[in-house]
Amino acid sequence: MKFGKEFASQMVQEWGKAYMDYNYLKGVVKDILIFRQKNAAAQSSGRKKSLKRRVSMYRAFSGLTNRLSTPRSNNEDEVILVSGVEQEGIIGAAQYQTTFLMSSEAGGEYELVFFRRLDDEFNKVVSFYREKVEEVRKEADELSKQMDALIALRIVVEKPPVDINGAQSQTRTDSAVIEAKSHMDAIQEIEMSGEEKNTGIIEEKTKNFTDFRPAPLHVLYDVTVNILPETPISTLKNILKASNSELKYNQAELRKAEERLRKAFMEFYRKLRLLKSYCFLNILAFSKIMKKYDKVTSRKASRSYLEMVDKSDLGSSDEVSRLMERTEATFIKHFANGNRRKGMRALRPHVKREKHRVTFFLGLFSGCSIALVAAIIVSKHARHLLQHKESAQFMENIFPLYSLFGFIVLHMIMYAGDIYFWRRYRINYPFIFGFKQGTELGYREVLLLASGISVLSLAAVLSHMSMEMDPVTRSYKVLTESVPPILITLLLIITFCPLNIVYRSSRFFLIKCAWHCILAPLFKVSLPDFFLADQLTSQVQAIRSFEFYICYYGWGNFRQRLTTCQKSDVYKIFYIIVAAIPFVARLLQCLRRLFEEKDNSQGLNGLKYFTTVVALVLRTLYEQNKGTTLRVLAIAFSGITTIANTYWDIVIDWGLLQKNSKNPWLRDKLLVPNNAVYFAAIVVNIILRLTWMQLVLDFEFSFLPKKAMIAIVACLEIIRRGIWNFFRLENEHLNNVGKYRAVKSVPLPFNHEVDNTIHSNA
Fold this sequence. Notes:
The chain has 762 residues and is an all-alpha fold. The protein has helices at 3-10, 22-49, 51-60, 62-68, 74-77, 108-158, 174-187, 199-207, 232-240, 251-297, 302-311, 313-316, 319-335, 340-347, 356-383, 391-424, 429-433, 443-464, 478-481, 483-496, 504-518, 527-537, 540-555, 569-597, 600-625, 628-653, 676-690, 694-697, 706-738, and strands spanning 80-86, 94-100, 223-225, 750-752.
């Protein structure tokens, strides 16, 4: 692999703009090469004419030739001079400038441009590196304070007899002294941002019992323990809670504080690794481009320039390495019980390996699904099911019973396609969604789950295709009619199974986000929460299928395939309510973000979902009762919400249709190289949004039953949502890139009341 591709593949995508622009500099070097080739071709004819004469002259004056061929001094070899200019008001932050000494030669202007752009890139990289180093230094100071508070909390919870001033109690037992001494050892551990301590002094103090002083517990008076989930209930509890006049904590609080600080250390260490990789890759890139320049120009400029690189903060600063060592030591001591292997396994990134069995079972289940589809078609024609007198009632029930699984499978297939293209265009979806490192599902795993559900549902359909009624009881077999709820029960058991099978981490992540959607106003809204809620708004018919299950198996006579509850007013009311639940959840999420973030756009977004709820209610009422007034209102509100949702999709969620962007009517930064893809996506999104109107406008097709038409429209909405997912996350990724956000923000367990500040980033 060429270095340019390897460089692009290994860079941190969120910091992409801060890396050296290797491709541009490579293009400048290529321009120098082209000029030299043209210049050499132009002079070749004149050189051939005088070649023999020049050779004879060198032979005649061999003494002169030998004298001139003596090695030149270092000063004669230099083609560039590199100097650093201190910035005003900033100590140690120099701007580097390169003076090209051969600008008067032919083609010197090309090389001058190269060094000017090289300096710009190097200063950009060094400036970004300095900024990030200063940032991690401050975060290290904060983590040091957090660690002091955690150690003091451990002492309080484990209750060694120590008073607030650190004096030993007169009634202390020998075992208590030993226990407290172990805490003192922890306090004297390597600090995250302090100066290096003299190890001899530390050893002397730890060996001398008489000089022992326990940890200063007064730090707990200056902080509050912030371990409760951020909900209105916890906020109310914190307001009503009295100040800490006494240090009273329990094991649960200690455990939660330790877990939160453990995650903060892991994210901090990950940021240090990214920063170290950033430094290494850029140094390597400057080395490669200078060697390429030397090769093209036959000069020796790389040594001087790379010496400057080595002396700069980028090459000489070892603060990141020292912070990594201290982080490792602290994490291993306090969160891995001194087990280095265990601690480093938690700190280092987990590389997910592709498994061959996933591909094997994906192919197996896909083939079985195709075979089952063929078997269903053959069975339908062989048994003449559509000609049977009970076929109309059978089809009326079969669509809502099994379309649920079809909607789920289709949505999973679209999500798998999204993952494939996110990976192809290097969109960091695991970071954006906040997946636990190494546990995110790839498109193969998602397709495997989809094909597995497909096999189960198609097998259930095949087993359900029976028109034989018991002549005595005038009913169908209970087992045959109970296949759909049995299948749903099986899928729910797998979903909520606590055992570490079938991607438990991803299942629990989905359950957590779904719970946050159900209790939308009670939880702080994160991207996975509202992203899942948006997915649910495209699964209205699937949610209504659950209501049909309750109606069919709870109040209907499923043994005779009869349902009477669909005509009841209660069913009709809940038919509206269950469909509005996802939109109401998104409305509540928008309101929560409006009050917390003071973002007026969230108010407009909430208004959009409110009009959608109104349009949905009016459309459903029109389907149930008909009437001109309801139809007019349903069409009006459906038109308004369709226009609003389409505009929001394209302009806000996707960030497109920017009039003055570099890419006309799109946006400045695009990850898909073909601009036509974006325009095609806009057109498709508009068309699929308009299909939502067809149920109100009463477009009927003689060859399609109404249930089938509803299912097709629902499938088109799922396809539209799958397309929306890709561009929505692309825009989110570019926003993260613009703000250089490459590491998750972890709330810290202790808030410092003295400084009246809340540190929320680790």
